[in-house]
Design a protein that fits this description.
six-stranded antiparallel β-sheet, 103 residues, elongated, mainly beta, 9 strands, 1 helix
Length: 103
């Protein structure tokens, strides 16, 4: 497993089956209530087949680029007060997933 950190708040962990994106909440007064991911704007074939947050999988089916909104439950928001991990499975035949943007 390889790890790449952009800064202290965002790290990627590359695995053979996909990658995990770890986001740290460094703002004491900020509560994460969901995540929004844009996939498919660079290459549809490199979009992940699913996105997993808190053990919940959202399958990704694309005919064009689109946003996926993943709202958290109240309990999940409380769990994400310090750190959030998002896992994405690599599409078959590709070692690289592409997220165009994340909010």
């Amino acid at each position: 497993m390889e790890e790449l950190c952009v800064n202290s708040a965002v790290c990627w962990r590359l695995q053979t089956s996909g990658f995990s994106l770890e986001v740290s909440n460094t703002g004491g007064g900020t509560v994460m209530v969901g995540v929004r991911v844009l996939v498919g704007s660079q290459a549809l074939e490199r979009a992940p087949s699913y996105i997993e947050v808190f053990g919940r999988s959202t399958h990704v089916t694309l005919t064009r680029a689109r946003w996926y909104d993943l709202p958290f439950t109240r309990d999940e928001s409380l769990l994400a007060d310090k750190k959030l991990t998002i896992f994405c499975e690599s599409p078959s035949g590709f070692a690289v997933n592409i997220f165009a943007l994340m909010e």
